[in-house]
């Protein structure tokens, strides 16, 4: 229950809706209650007229007219309430979803490594749907009835306290019986959801890499695994539902016994002349009105169980610790007014405390491991001078990408500091750090959408001329021009409609457009053949000219022009020197160089 209130207070700005719903509910209840009173009055009037008294036909017409007015008002108000409930729910949905997304965007890289994308999406969808469905039902039907119940209790107390007492114990009794069953229900619900989340997570992953699944002919096994999750979810639901409904028979059965007592009191009191026939008609109607919500309650409790489970998994994500100084900024509500502009301007490049054109980078005693027991980098200390080009060399898995991840603030070092332009990066916002760095990753990581949108991802304001210039320098313009719609060609999810080399050239151009003073190339040209690599290399050389760069290259020939090379071995810095110097030693660089040269010679011989 507390988590549901937390959901409402999360969207505090919806208070006019909440207030409107409460107000209409009060009026809906009042108009609903008018009906039994009018009918009771009519009953007494009819009895009086039948025995020769009463006020004549006009009184009966007036009473029927009053019924009509009360019922029409009730119909209109119920619909006003329904409208408010529906719009409130959709707004709440928008606010909750936006906050969830904002939260996810601000979580550290590490969070996503422990989650399947599909699971995260599944959870969002389910938890928000369940919470909003419940609130919609609550505000549209349950809340007005709840008010009626209180009124009915008050009125019956006026007529007969034993009657009121019996009515009164129904609700706590029913709630208690429901609570008895809900614990087990919640546990089973959790188990079921885990299965569904696992199925959804794997599903999204497989569809995302369908090529691999097809070429390894794993469709059948993937499907079987998927079905397995659903089979277990079905079995859990069987247990859950049969338990719930058996308990419901017990719950309602005990209610039926109480209603037996209630009717007995009404009949006996009327027979002995304490109640008039009109009173009896009124009380029977009121009891019927009190009965509906009890029956509705088991439905509502069922739905509230879902909603509580849903809001719990919602807040599980909302309570995760974000990255320090997350770039989404303070998590606030989305602008839902019809005139709101979408997209918005890109945030202005954050002012760096000291921004020389090409700042320096310094690692000082940096150690790091992805998990506590295995250190990947140990006591790494080096400086990159302004405008310098530094290459990192190690065997595969030696920690080069990890070092770049640390520079980007995707992870925090377990010891040591990283500074840019003399400022400790831990003391400024990650968005500021990242806005200083242009980066090309090993996997090009493009987005669905057009070539143009991808190129301008780091600088939405870039002009077409700037985009084209970057594409030319990355040797991408020619192939882009040949695509069906040129720069407006849609490249598919993660760029699936492009070759590996084309994707990489777009990624290089994207980094060029961002035009940041620091440049990081993590095997940026590894997917290119030697000829394209040389062409892109020319563009990269130009890009590196007025920047401080860290380069990781698969082919050592491409880093022969750097100023300095650092080699890593067992997580430590092994050697530092110019390419020429290191080629003379017997370190990793020389070793890898010899391997690659002999490979090249062998290839040439084969040709
Ligand atoms: P390189 O880029 O030099 O090939 P990496 O920096 O990618 O090497 O990896 C260094 C080590 O860290 C490897 O042993 C790898 O298994 C491990 N590693 C890389 N990324 C992660 C991660 N996200 N979680 C846990 N371990 C990782
Ligand atoms: Mg790597």
TrEMBL record:
GO function term, MF aspect, one: ABC-type transporter activity
Pfam families for the chain: ABC_membrane, ABC_tran
Localisation: Cell membrane
Entry GO CC: plasma membrane
Transmembrane segments: 15-39, 59-84, 134-155, 161-180, 255-275
Segments forming domain ABC transmembrane type-1: 19-306
Keyword annotations: ATP-binding, Membrane, Nucleotide-binding, Transmembrane, Transmembrane helix
ABC transporter domain mapped to chain residues: 361-595
Its membrane topology: Multi-pass membrane protein
InterPro entries on file: AAA+_ATPase, ABC1_TM_dom, ABC1_TM_sf, ABC_transporter-like_ATP-bd, ABC_transporter-like_CS, P-loop_NTPase, Type_1_exporter
CDD domains from the UniProt entry: ABC_6TM_exporters
Protein name, per record: ABC transporter ATP-binding protein
Organism: Propioniciclava sinopodophylli
